[in-house]
Design brief:
Elements: H1 5-17, E1 23-34, E2 44-61, E3 65-70, E4 77-80, H2 95-110, E5 134-141, H3 151-166, H4 173-188, H5 195-202, E6 207-212, E7 217-222, H6 226-229, E8 231-240, H7 247-263, H8 273-278, H9 285-310, H10 314-330, H11 337-348, E9 353-357, E10 363-370, H12 374-388, E11 394-398, E12 405-406
Parallel strand pairs: 3-5
Antiparallel strand pairs: 1-2, 1-12, 2-5, 2-6, 3-4, 6-7, 8-10, 8-11, 9-10
Helix pairs in contact: 2-3, 2-4, 3-4, 3-5, 4-5, 7-9, 9-10
């Protein structure tokens, strides 16, 4: 299970900066249960947070300098408030925390909090201008990087939640999530929607998060516990890493946007499955399959959410999860041989359902498995991976976790 992150980041902060932090904030990773690759097309997502978290100990500086130290790398992230926007390396771990700071600073300057000084804007000294503060940050995470468990959204949420608190910005969940999305899309170069960012902010213990991108609607639903259902939630990190900034994800997003344009709609959310089938000859075969995944996945996720709300038809829910995995594998082509192997193995061992989670091309598998057979699943997966010569996977049974918060 996870480490005592509060103690780790406080000790790390003291060692790095020789003083006490102002506080400690953290945010979870997440398991995407359904709805992957739909939110850029005004789609829907169903997810929950996991016990693995990112954590940061933070304190302000008076000189405008920013230093971020981590136990994840020997490199530091160093910049200042004046030049931060131009000094963020792309496709690098530093892009996430520095990008989150830059995005929060931009929000604060566009929405100056009460009491902001009026002498900071050189073009008009009377205009309120948020000066910000320098920062010292010690950052860590227990979320495996590249495992499809939203480690990037978690890091962004940890930093943004902390700055929202001690800069006194009063931002809501949707605004904080948008900061994370902007950081990934505009700074890191990993275009994506809001679902992951909403989930890691809005999540609650023992509850799931439904997000409708079309109306930015967030619903919190009670999650059936393993004791009630007899099924444990299990994630398996295949150790097959992916990167959100991969060009393959951008290509697929472009294919979906092109399909909507050819069909005469703003987004694929407006397209019914029958309309898409009728227009198949207007689209390239690959583009059609990408669009078919999004259109069908939106319908599946809406039906799945309805069944989760009512507690009805667990067999139908499992059927929907299986259909989602098939669509991700065959139409969106983001499953891999190792993910397929893991899904098939879990199913053979008696899982009620097994499905990749996240963007794919590596990452993790989410399994609903009989509680009394979880240890058998763990041992069998570890043994099978060893036989294949693969790195030992993380196999974690969990209940839904709380979202971003202050821990100290």
């Amino acid at each position: 299970m996870s480490r005592d992150l509060t103690t780790i980041v406080c000790d790390g902060f003291r060692a790095a900066f020789d003083r006490e932090p102002l506080g400690v904030w953290s945010a979870p990773g997440r398991v995407s249960i359904m709805g992957d690759h739909t939110d850029l097309q005004d789609g829907v997502g169903y997810a929950c947070a996991i016990p693995l978290r990112s954590s940061a100990a933070i304190a302000p500086r008076e000189d405008g300098r920013i230093r971020i130290v981590t136990d994840l790398s020997t490199d530091e992230a160093v910049t200042d408030l004046r030049s931060i926007s131009s000094e963020i390396p792309t496709q690098d771990w530093r892009a996430y925390p520095l990008g989150a700071v830059a995005s929060m600073l931009r929000f604060a300057r566009e929405n100056p909090p009460e009491g902001t000084r009026g002498d900071g804007d050189e073009t008009d000294p009377g205009v309120p201008f948020f000066l910000g503060t320098g920062l010292e940050i010690f950052l860590t995470t227990d979320i495996p990087i590249g495992a499809g468990l939203a480690s990037s959204a978690s890091i962004c949420a940890t930093i943004s939640t902390a700055l929202n608190d001690f800069w006194g910005l009063g931002m809501n969940v949707e605004e904080l999530a948008e900061v994370g999305r902007q950081t990934e899309a505009d700074i890191v170069g990993a275009p994506g929607g809001l679902t992951d960012h909403i989930t890691v902010h809005a999540a609650r213990s023992d509850e799931d998060v439904f997000f409708d991108a079309r109306g930015s609607d967030v619903s919190i639903l009670a999650a059936t516990s393993s004791a009630e259902s007899g099924l444990a939630r299990v994630l398996i990190d295949t150790k097959e890493s992916h990167r959100n900034w991969s060009a393959e994800f951008a290509t697929r997003a472009g294919d979906c946007a092109r399909a909507a344009e050819v069909l005469g709609f703003q987004t694929l959310r407006e397209v019914r499955p029958a309309e898409l089938d009728a227009a198949a000859d207007k689209l390239d075969e690959v583009v059609f399959r990408r669009a078919r995944h999004v259109v069908s996945e939106i319908a599946r996720t809406l039906e799945f959410t309805k069944l989760m709300r009512t507690g009805e038809s667990p067999e139908e829910r499992n059927h929907l999860l299986a259909a989602s995995q098939t669509s991700l594998r065959e139409d969106f082509e983001v499953s891999t041989a190792r993910i397929d192997f893991t899904v098939e193995l879990a199913t053979y061992l008696g899982a009620a359902s097994a499905r990749m989670t996240g963007t794919g091309l590596g990452g993790s598998v989410f399994v609903m498995h009989p509680v009394d057979k979880v240890e058998e699943l763990r041992e069998s997966v570890l043994s099978a991976y060893a036989e294949q010569g693969w790195e030992a996977p993380l196999v974690l049974s969990f209940e839904p976790e709380a979202g971003a918060r202050r821990d100290r």
